[in-house]
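Q: Please design a sequence for this.
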């Protein structure tokens, strides 16, 4: 079970999968959406050259340790949502204002929860139902304005400034931080 999730996670990274998700997020105004200084960023651009091959090798090593997906018993010793991958980042992104789609993974969630920090991940279910993506495919997002999400894993566009800082959380480690200026439903 878990290996199938890892394979899906690897494919999501490789092909940049991002499916629309129902629900609405509170809108945080994006005053400069589409401004000339805002770069439309893809998840692939967060991975330095050569790291994709390394990631594939890491997943192969994990597969060798856990065995065939058919032999992994759900809830068993090898059914572990282990975060693997690299903290390697693209230095040129530091300080850039970017716009990026992804899924929210809030640390706190409830009917009236207003959050000021969350993880942004490239595929639905990461960190909750599937293993976390590699640290350089996980973004720690901070916001000065509290945000109320309609769904736990909300598909959103975010806009903000990239910082290359490592954040270690209970859900996953992140190699990038984005200071949020705007958020809207995907």
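A: Design:
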């Amino acid at each position: 079970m878990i290996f199938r999730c890892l394979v899906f996670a690897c494919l999501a990274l490789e092909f940049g999968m991002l499916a629309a998700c129902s629900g609405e997020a509170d809108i945080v105004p994006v005053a400069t959406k589409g401004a000339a200084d805002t770069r439309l960023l893809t998840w692939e651009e967060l991975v330095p050259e050569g790291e994709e091959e390394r990631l594939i090798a890491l997943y192969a090593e994990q597969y060798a340790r856990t065995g065939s997906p058919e032999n992994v018993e759900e809830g068993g010793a090898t059914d572990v949502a282990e975060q693997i991958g690299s903290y390697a980042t693209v230095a040129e992104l530091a300080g850039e204002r970017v716009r990026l789609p992804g899924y929210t993974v809030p640390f706190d969630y409830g009917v009236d929860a207003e959050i000021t920090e969350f993880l942004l991940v490239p595929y639905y279910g990461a960190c909750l139902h599937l293993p976390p993506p590699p640290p350089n495919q996980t973004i720690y997002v901070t916001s000065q304005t509290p945000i109320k999400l309609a769904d736990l894993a909300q598909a959103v566009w975010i806009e903000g400034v990239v910082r290359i800082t490592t954040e270690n959380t209970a859900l996953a480690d992140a190699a990038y931080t984005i200071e949020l200026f705007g958020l809207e439903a995907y």
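Q: Thanks. Anything notable?
A: The beta strands are 38-40, 97-106, 115-121, 139-147, 155-163, 167-168, 173-174, 176-185. The radius of gyration is 16 Å.
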